[in-house]
Design goal:
Layout: E1 12-16, E2 21-24, E3 27-30, H1 31-34, H2 43-50, E4 54-58, H3 61-64, H4 75-86, E5 90-94, H5 112-126, E6 132-134, H6 139-148, H7 159-183, E7 188-194, E8 197-200, H8 205-214, H9 217-222, H10 233-239, H11 244-252, E9 259-264, E10 269-273, E11 284-286, E12 291-296, H12 308-319, E13 323-328, H13 334-353, E14 358-363, E15 369-370, E16 383-384, E17 388-389, E18 396-397, H14 399-408, E19 461-464, H15 469-481, E20 485-488, H16 498-508, E21 512-515, H17 529-549, E22 553-559, H18 582-597, E23 602-606, E24 609-610, H19 618-627, E25 632-635, E26 639-640, E27 643-644, H20 645-658, E28 662-665, E29 672-673, H21 674-684, E30 692-695, H22 723-737
Parallel strand pairs: 1-4, 1-14, 4-5, 5-6, 6-7, 7-9, 8-10, 9-13, 13-14, 19-20, 19-21, 21-22, 22-23, 23-28, 24-27, 25-30
Antiparallel strand pairs: 2-3, 10-12, 11-12, 15-16, 17-18, 26-29
Helix pairs in contact: 5-7, 6-7, 12-13, 15-20, 17-18, 19-21, 21-22
């Protein structure tokens, strides 16, 4: 594959916003409202700054005319499309995006095609300057999810509903383009579909063959290819009850796309295996002949040629029509998102250079998306960032923003974090043992190798605090994420000694330093203030200054104990600090001096770690006491923000890669007392919460005063999941160890 610095010219960069309006029962889920884009026209100016030439953009039936075509509301579309026109960004107007129309209709309504065509006519009349349309996004995928798997309305699981939904959407596309072209004869059809392919064991070859014939159905229907000898024709007739005349209509009314748009995800390629025992934790499906699992092909060591380049060339050879990659997204860590988009961009340019008419790669989704982890069947606010992260209430540029700007302007993009292979290319991705259940990438069993620091030509992260909980967690997760790092002890780099730090930087040439070292004994600090300030303030500031002089990114940590507790609502980054104890004072001083000497430093305030890997954190000690039959005393009068260490570390790495600076608050969303924290964990672990004895902080006879309220909120972005979510994951692992 070509280096990103040597990419051939010719492929455009498009953008897209996740705009699904799908229906579950009688509830509609609107991604545009969920992301807040509905109320933020200024987002469009941010998109223009990326350098994109076109954008897949919603003019959706359900949004414009939810109460019928006789009562359209064009106000939002007028305003936002008008701004796109001013910015000279070409909209590719989407009329139906995984939807089924307003309540009055559905994918199996006999009049559905004509109704969508009428809406298309209205759109074209109102916006005659729009040049490109996708009347229906991913007809085959939508038909499968709505008619075959039961996820979306009308929630059917039969061939008849699938086929009816499929034909209705494709017929609607033909009629919609016909209506649009009566008004604008030059209008282009950019038809999208998932670039899926199925592989299998020899026994299930027949099922894979069927699915691979079916995967082309959207384009074969539109291109008038489903004739008497088409492999899907008999299925549509015999198994789905489709009449000859309905299929022949497409032969007589073909509407080949001007550009075939493929959406490609790591889940697009599937593998079928009847050896169910090898896939513990995966759902079991099947057909009337065999039971089998359907897993991501990337999890299997395939012999068959696969991947984006192979599939796009297959599409080119089949249709010889212009192609585009119309969705390219990975819900993963930041460096993996960068690796994925850059890999797709480079592959597209390779194909272009080899003679494939590949027009564009689409960054999807610019504003991220919600709840696709459940295929939009449940609404749990599960957010996947895109080019921008909107969890702060406004779009925050991520590292993907710089990547897009650079490749749109034919400039090289460099970041040490993206060196190496994405997880989809590492052998660790394979499912190899019958007892290997799916695990979170941040919650795998301990691996001693993560603490080794093998030499690498890649600029590493330097992590201080080799013996501490936080430092070891960073090393562990860097290993999982494929990030080169060195975990250093005080002997290898004394952060309070300038010469020691300078030597380490000269030796390892890091791109960033993560400072997890420091004095952590809050009560003992009242007697050892000089030592506490030396470790927490002097050390942090020494690193800050040297990182600034050497152009090395710098992340260090502070605490909720910099606040006095008088606020009684969550503290945000700009709130005034007034620590009550020596430890808090050392952290507040470190914050102030660090930002004075290094304005580019990133300082994360956090609180009350709990971790699946550390036996000495508060929760592990409390649950261990209960398990042994003892009671455990905890304060019931001060409120905190417990923070799940895997969530904290992953979020810190993401924003460090993004180039964030200044103060950030990172804690799981929630507030409770230490005693309630322990009770909740005990209950979820199947232990007796009554063994937690609540008391006042005063009764604990702690040397250092604590704020009665130190809950952390944020104005910059709520990047960590809820505390309930984190506790469920923590206790699930805890129970597994019992």
């Amino acid at each position: 594959m070509e280096s990103s610095n040597e990419i051939k010219k010719g492929v455009e960069i498009w953008g897209g916003v996740e705009c699904t309006v799908n229906r579950v029962g009688d509830v509609f889920f609107d991604q545009i409202k969920k992301s807040g884009h509905h109320s933020r026209i200024e987002d469009l100016d941010l998109f223009a700054e990326l350098g994109i030439t076109s954008i897949r953009y919603p003019v959706l039936w359900e949004r414009v005319a939810p109460d019928g075509l006789e009562n359209p509301d064009w106000r939002w579309s007028d305003r936002f499309l008008g701004r796109l026109r001013e910015l000279d960004i070409r909209p590719i107007a989407g009329l139906l995006h995984h939807g089924s129309g307003p309540l009055e209709t559905s994918l199996v309504d006999p009049d559905f095609p004509e109704k969508l065509a009428e809406f298309a006519r209205m759109v074209a009349e109102r916006y005659p300057w729009i040049e490109a349309y996708t009347p229906v996004n991913e007809p085959l995928t939508t038909a499968r999810f709505s008619g075959l798997y039961g996820f979306w309305y009308p929630h059917a699981k039969d061939n008849q509903t699938f086929a009816r939904a499929m034909l209705n959407q494709c017929r609607a596309t033909v009629l919609a383009m016909r209506a649009i072209r009566r008004i604008n004869p030059q209008a282009k059809l950019i038809q999208t579909e998932d670039l899926g392919k199925t592989y299998s064991t020899p026994k299930l070859k027949y099922q894979a063959k069927f699915e691979n014939e079916r995967r082309w159905l959207t384009f074969d229907l539109l291109c008038g290819r489903v004739g008497s000898k088409h492999p899907m024709r008999k299925f549509l007739q015999r198994c789905a009850g489709i009449e000859d005349s309905e299929l022949d209509w497409f032969l007589e009314n073909s509407c080949p796309p001007d550009i075939i748009g493929f959406n490609y995800y790591l889940t697009s390629e599937r593998f079928l295996d009847e050896n169910i025992k090898n896939y513990a934790g995966y759902p079991i499906g099947g057909n009337k002949r065999h039971r089998y699992v359907d897993v991501e092909a990337v999890r299997v060591d395939l012999d068959s040629p696969n991947g984006l380049k192979v599939l796009m060339r297959e599409a080119w050879e089949r249709y010889k029509l212009p192609l585009a990659i119309t969705e390219a997204h990975l819900g993963c860590t930041r460096e993996e998102q960068l690796r994925w988009l850059l890999e797709i961009w480079e592959t597209a340019n390779e194909l272009k250079g080899e003679g494939v008419d590949l027009r564009a790669v689409t960054a999807w989704s610019l504003l991220g998306s919600y709840d696709w982890n459940s295929l939009l069947t449940t609404f749990q606010n599960h957010y996947e960032p895109g080019v921008f992260d909107i969890r702060g209430g406004h779009p925050r540029p991520t590292a993907l923003t710089k990547l897009l700007k650079n490749i749109a302007r034919e400039q090289k993009f460099e970041h040490p974090a993206i060196e190496g292979l994405g997880w989809w290319k590492r052998r660790s991705r394979f499912i190899v043992r019958p007892d290997q259940a799916a695990q979170s990438t941040t919650e795998k069993a301990p691996d001693k190798r993560i603490y080794q620091t093998a030499e690498s030509s890649t600029k590493p992260l330097l992590i201080t605090g080799a013996t501490g909980t936080l430092g070891r967690a960073f090393a562990r997760i860097c290993h999982i994420r494929g990030l080169s790092c060195r975990l250093l002890s005080r002997r290898e780099m004394d952060i309070t000694n300038k010469e020691s730090v300078e030597r380490a930087i000269a030796k390892y040439n890091p791109w960033a330093i993560i400072n997890t070292a420091g004095y952590v004994r809050v009560d003992q600090a009242e007697r050892e203030s000089e030592l506490c300030f030396r470790e927490n303030t002097q050390g942090a500031v020494t690193l800050a200054g040297i990182c600034e002089r050497n152009a090395v990114s710098y992340l260090t940590f502070s605490s909720d104990l910099v606040f006095d507790g008088d606020k009684q609502k969550p503290y945000v980054e700009r709130d005034f600090t007034n620590p009550l104890n020596i430890y808090g004072q050392s952290k507040a001083a470190a914050e102030k001096q660090t930002l004075e000497i290094n304005p580019n430093a990133l300082i994360v305030r956090t609180a009350a770690f709990f971790s699946p890997w550390d036996e000495f954190n508060f929760l592990s000690v409390a649950l261990g006491k209960i398990l042994s039959g003892d009671t455990f005393k905890a304060a019931d009068d001060n409120f905190i923000s417990p923070t799940y260490l895997p969530d904290l570390v992953n979020a810190c790495l993401d924003i460090l890669i993004d180039g964030e600076r200044g103060l950030w608050h990172l804690a799981n969303q929630g507030s409770l007392t230490w005693a309630d924290f322990a009770r909740q964990a005990a209950s979820l672990s199947g232990l007796k919460p009554s063994f937690i004895i609540g008391c006042s902080t005063e009764e604990l006879n702690l040397a250092a005063p604590r704020p009665v309220y130190s809950t952390l909120g944020s104005e910059r972005g709520i990047l960590l999941p809820s505390l309930d979510n984190a506790l469920n994951r923590f206790t699930s692992l805890y129970r597994a160890k019992l």
